[in-house]
Specification:
With about 230 residues, this protein is of the alpha/beta class. It has 6 helices and 7 strands; from the N terminus they run E-H-E-E-H-E-H-E-H-E-H-E-H. The chain has a 7-stranded parallel β-sheet, with helices on both faces.
């Protein structure tokens, strides 16, 4: 189990949406310090929050963050991008960006922070996936989240010898700017953040942050044809 109270935490993509809710949640649970990142510099007046610009597509930017946050004990890999275009007709450049941000971005962060976490006692790495990791029909975004799920499961094994606890999070639609144009039922960011941190502190290796994720996970043993994202 990894308690948040008294810990130093990193939240990528912490300026808004679920990332901002995670920053709020860990502060409420007594985190000693939170490094919160965004692609561009921004201000947060709370004394326990340190804002850092981060481009997860850049190894240099990620390495700079790891140098600044050398006291980190818990890392939330939350930064992501959504380009929903179909695989056959969408721009290949956007698909490449999707994988660079959603798959290689978390991997860059994990590689940079692995020695930091080891030096600070092991700690935890929490990676954000999606219910669309398991459902066809979400284009490159769903494919990238499926890859991220696999990445997390392998990182769990590779980081176990240094006692770093690895958590994978699956969630459906969350009421954030990223999916504001979609007319679907959405969870509140604060509710999802609370369930994520609950799972982390309980020692879970996987968090199903809402009912839709639990339902889809239960269907994985069924026919693959049933694992499709329904049209709006």
């Amino acid at each position: 189990m990894v308690a948040v109270a008294g810990r130093v935490v990193v939240v990528t993509g912490g300026r808004r949406g679920l990332g901002a809710a995670l920053v709020d949640e860990v502060l409420a649970r007594g985190a000693d310090k939170v490094y919160s990142t965004a692609r561009s510099a921004y201000a947060d007046e709370r004394p326990r929050v340190v804002t850092v610009p981060l481009e997860v597509r850049s190894e240099e930017s990620v390495a700079a963050l790891a140098g600044i946050a050398a006291d980190a004990e818990i890392v939330f890999n939350n930064a992501g991008v959504l380009h929903p275009a179909p695989l056959l007709t969408g721009a290949v450049e956007q698909m490449a960006e999707t994988f660079d941000v959603n798959v290689f971005g978390p991997l860059r962060v994990a590689r940079a922070f692995a020695p930091v976490l080891a030096a600070n006692g092991g700690g935890a790495l929490v990676n954000m996936h999606s219910v669309l990791s398991w459902l066809a029909g979400a284009g490159a975004y769903g494919a990238s989240k499926a890859a991220a799920w696999s990445l997390t499961n392998s990182l769990r094994l590779e980081l176990a010898p240094q006692h770093t606890h690895v958590v994978g999070v699956h969630a459906g639609f969350i009421d954030t700017d990223m999916v504001s144009a979609l007319e679907r039922s959405k969870a509140k960011p604060a509710d999802v953040a609370a369930r994520i941190v609950d799972g982390l502190e309980a020692g879970d290796v996987e968090v199903l942050a809402d009912d839709v994720s639990a339902t889809v996970k239960a269907a994985l043993s069924g026919p693959v044809a049933h694992l499709a994202f329904p049209a709006a």
